[in-house]
Amino acid sequence: MKDGIIIFADNYVGERIVEWLAKNFASEISLVFTTSKNRITSICNQNNIRTEIFADEGQALKVINESKVRFKIGFLIWWPKIITNNIIKIPKNGFVNTHPSFLPFARGKNYNFWSIVENCPFGVTLHLVEEGIDCGDIVEQREIEYSWTDTGGSLFIKAREEMISLFKDNYCSIRDLRFVPKKQDLSLGSLHYGKELDKVCEIDLDQRYLAKDLINLLRARTMNGYPGCYFFDSDKRYEIQIFIEEVGTDGD
Predict the structure, then answer these.
(1) Which listed residue, of 10, 89, 207, 249, carries a Cα 20 to 30 Å from 39's Cα?
(2) Residue 249's pLDDT is what?
(3) CB contact burial 139-154 (16+ within 10 A = b; e otherwise)
(4) pLDDT value at position 248?
(5) Domain map of the chain by residue range?
(6) Which residues of the chain carry a pLDDT beneath 70?
(7) Three-state secondary structure readout of 122-141
(8) CATH architecture assignment, domain 2-192
(9) pLDDT for residue 1
């Protein structure tokens, strides 16, 4: 039985990282799961890396068990689905997840939105996977500075690119287990679910808001191709997205 690495990858970040791994470390990657027939499957096929489309956990476990590979470590790269301990425990040294926030801040969904609304540090994190939401020990992380001109959309883009860079810079040390995990202090951060977003984005026209809080709410929900914050008037729904430009310093 040979040793290998297992990867669950999806989306733009998954494509870019799998492409980099295939170019530089193809022989180390034994199995890649993705969500559909996509560019990840094409990259793997071109580099003789076995790839499978994830249907459900039962199917994934069957494929893994039949692979006859002893997995040293696994990676979740922008993976959109929850995996349980049945899969987490398969690699000898567990899984490392890519999470686009500066953990323990903005755990869970809509990290770019909540980082602005809660005015907390923002960044990207590689962390060990546990049966909980983004709660495992931190392997490595990198803070990303942001300003008033940033929106939820710009933080989304910054996080994608920085996550790719962070992964590339740390892959070899993680693969060789040359890292010291750091426990998260979950009391310092926050956890959010997808179902929270729509309600908190409704603007009540009769409610008083601090100007700073309202501006942060509006820019956090500004992202091309996605709904903005909204309000109702005369049974009509209106959506808002904003643009902030720095024009100089006080006194200029």
Answers:
(1) 89
(2) 77
(3) bbbeebebeeebbbbb
(4) 81
(5) 2-192, 195-240
(6) 1, 251-252
(7) CEEEEEECCCCCCCCCEEEE
(8) 3-Layer(aba) Sandwich (3.40)
(9) 59
